[in-house]
């Protein structure tokens, strides 16, 4: 099979990238250009590109769905905590407010330390929640019925001495 010789001009960045790909694959620059041109001119080339784009969009959609799910868990967690806190906390008498603030600062420091440990271990509360829910996560009506926490598995902050 004879091949036609072409003299082409390409951008310097493309020439550099062509050199890198040819060296990496261990083939000639002509082979890389021939494969790229065959792919571009192939009648199935458009279908392949469309399939690749559709696959990537599906991956992005799944990632977005997971982010949305995790965000909803976080929003509901904060909302539930705020409701609980506002329901059970009693007003602090004026004479004890400074001591309450000091205790609050100490609790905050303890919270940040516990959060850092959780992150350093690579554990995710959101992931744990989804594992606890299991298959019910797919059905929101069952998720409400099976919701609850495992208090034994959570680290409970202790009062500073």
UniProtKB/TrEMBL annotation:
Keyword entries, A-Z: Coiled coil
UniProt feature coiled coil, ranges: 50-77
InterPro entries on file: Arc_rbn_hlx_hlx, Ribbon_hlx_hlx
Name by which UniProt lists this protein: CopG family transcriptional regulator
Chain spans, region Disordered: 132-161
Keyword Coiled coil attached: yes
Gene3D superfamilies according to UniProt: Met repressor-like
Organism: Variovorax ginsengisoli
Low complexity bias locations: 135-146
Domain of life: Bacteria
């Amino acid at each position: 099979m004879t091949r036609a010789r072409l003299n082409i001009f390409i951008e310097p960045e493309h020439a550099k990238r062509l050199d890198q790909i040819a060296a990496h694959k261990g083939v000639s620059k002509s082979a890389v250009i021939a494969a790229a041109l065959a792919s571009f001119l192939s009648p199935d080339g458009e279908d392949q590109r469309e399939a690749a784009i559709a696959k990537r969009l599906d991956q992005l959609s799944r990632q977005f769905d997971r982010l949305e799910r995790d965000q909803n868990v976080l929003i509901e967690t904060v909302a539930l905590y705020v409701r609980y806190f506002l329901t059970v906390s009693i007003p602090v008498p004026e004479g004890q407010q400074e001591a309450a603030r000091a205790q609050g600062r100490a609790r905050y420091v303890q919270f940040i330390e516990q959060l850092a440990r959780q992150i350093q271990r690579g554990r995710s509360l959101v992931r744990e929640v989804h594992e606890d829910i299991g298959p019910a996560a797919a059905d929101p009506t069952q998720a409400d019925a099976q919701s609850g926490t495992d208090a034994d598995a959570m680290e409970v902050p202790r009062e500073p001495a």
